[in-house]
Give the backbone structure.
Amino acid sequence: MEKASSKIVVFCCYQSAYEAADMAGTMGLSLPDNLNVVRVPCTGKVDTIHILRAFELGAEGVIVLACHDENCKFLTGNIRARKRVEYLKGILEEIGLEKERLEIYNLAPNMGHRFAEVASSMAENLKKLRSAEV
Amino acid sequence: MSESAKIGVFFCNCGKTISERIDIKKLKEEVQSAGGVQCIEEFESLCRKPEQEKLSSLMKKEGVERVVIAGCSPKLYEELFARTLKEAGINPEFLVISNIREQCSWVFPEKDTATRKALEDIRQKVSRAKSLEAFDEVDVPAEQKVLAIGGGIAGLETALELSKLGFKVTLIEKSSALGGRTLKLNKSYVIEENPKDYVQAKVDLVNKDDNIEILTETELVKLNGSPGNFTAKIKQSGEKKDLNVGAIVVATGLSTRFPRESYGIDLSEKVVTQLQLEEILASPEKSDARFKGDNKAHVLFVTGMIGEDSKLSTASALKNALLLKGKYDCLTYVACQEMKVAGDRLEEMYRKAREEGVIFFKYNGNPPSFVTNGSEIKAVVSDYFLSAGEKGIPQVKIPCDLLVLEENLVPTEDFAALRGTLDIKLGPRGFFQQDNVHQVPVKSNKSGIFLVGSCRQPMDIVEVLADAGSAATQIVSLLSPGKIKVNDNRWTIEKGKCTLCLTCVRFCPHGAIGWTRAAEASEGLCQACGVCASECPAIAIQVKNYTNDQILTELEEILNK
Ligand SMILES: Cc1cc2nc3c(=O)[nH]c(=O)nc-3n(C[C@H](O)[C@H](O)[C@H](O)COP(=O)(O)OP(=O)(O)OC[C@H]3O[C@@H](n4cnc5c(N)ncnc54)[C@H](O)[C@@H]3O)c2cc1C
Ligand code: SF4
Ligand code: SF4
């Protein structure tokens, strides 16, 4: 069993990124095996507290995946999510965590490749951070 | 959180698609031994009717209260399974899908890894299932009556469509007559009839229609309520009255503005906007007086100097260049930044115009300049193709008997006030609508308020008609049969925590929150996006089934805490 400390939590907007994740599977793209998806109706519902708590519980990385600008089903949820992530990146640095551990990307439902790409790139970055530590 | 609710976990093998790549037997054992799940069963293909029936009777027999289905993506059959729950007497809110097909079995080629990931996901979903709360969809009565604002082609057509579908409509128009801008057009490039006659025929139909009440010189002054139950205060020549309506249609059209700063030349007898030319050509007397005679007039149309060449201005230039050429044998020229012909009939008109001898210049970043000498006007125009291969930019001087300049298509003057009254948001180009793939174009950000025609973006008559049809259909599906489904008590607030900072009011994308002693969301308007809950500094708001606790429960399960 993987240790919690090597996990990546991905908050997926159900309007877009969740389907992109499905598509990555349908296309048989390879994904890191320490990725866990949390489905949200809109990234506007991902609170600062959820992200901080994920880190507190030992997540190594958190990705928030929102719809493209102007394409949020709820109009501005993706914009609010980006604001929170940007704010939190600052907080992470203050508490001594690298800001690369938290990312937000905009995806459309048909972007399976992009889903696989951002997931793998987070896994890679975390690996680098890990080896820098030792 | 309900620790005592009876949980069922049901596996779907999806033919063999899932069971070939995931060890279902092992999953069942693991789920069983972890405890807390009372009913576990494996199915071959749950998307088949007989198996759903089997599932339904199993759930009833076992008294299952919360359901986790581990199978394909919820994007496929979540709604179907929600109905199965309903049939079995379980609130469909108590369904959680664990996506072990798309997001596990198809991702990880090694069976062990796929099985481990599936188990993680199922555990996460079981913990979520335990944490879910029930809320119901309830029916609220809805007025089968609509207020349409604006008596142009958009408002008229929507009213007629709604009337056909059995709805009552009150159509308010701020000017003294119906018809709108179409009355000023000389000819439409998309419909055969004369636009004036065309819109007049609609006005006549509306006048005769018993379902449609027409109020001219009338404006909306206030709006309260939610879909199905709006109260609209309208003002007709100083007198105010209240209307109860189920939905609002905004069809207020657009305005034009001549941007002198872009051209450096004033409007005059010889310099007109496209709309002014439309008006001249709409009157045979005025146009004969201007263009008939032995001397062929030189007419230059200029588009694209005030931003992207718009479809309407391209269409208007092509249409009128052809008309002046054909009817009065004028020498017609069109100077454009780019000729964009992606639209109904545009390519055809462009070709025809070239065949008939209209001369085109593509100035490509070197816009024309205008030289006046007394009453004479010369335009100095360059062309990308003429200059190809040569140094410098060859320029052509055109003496203009008439210069027709594209104007800005802008929101109407009282647009901002109306938007305030309706409390709806504007799209990125200052008009009402957003370009959003998730949004039906005629819907505003606020449920029950619809935007039709050129108030949401510049468009031609055929597009306006399509909008009207679409809005009517949307309205009927919202308000029929006399009731609207809303989520009862899904949005909750701890009033004691609310400091009335109104952050939620500002950030709610759907204009759903008002306040008295604490913030309060309208159930008819709230779309449960959760933005308010995430922004509230006091953490006073929760949206059921995406509450903080529920999301944190999932995180805790993922991270094994
Ligand atoms: C230069 C030019 C050329 C065009 N050429 C063509 C063409 O060849 N073919 C074609 O199909 N289309 C053409 N069009 C587009 C056509 O004019 C529009 O598609 C059509 O007029 C849009 O109708 P509408 O009902 O949306 O708006 P409008 O016709 O503008 O009607 C809006 C109505 O709402 C009323 N109103 C506004 N505000 C309020 C308020 N607050 N309260 C109550 N009432 C209000 C107005 O008084 C008006 O009666 C052209 C447009 C322009 C500018
Ligand atoms: S954001 Fe929170 S505290 Fe502020 S008004 Fe809304 S509910 Fe009250
Ligand atoms: S959840 Fe909140 S922000 Fe979203 S529509 Fe409802 S009231 Fe508005």
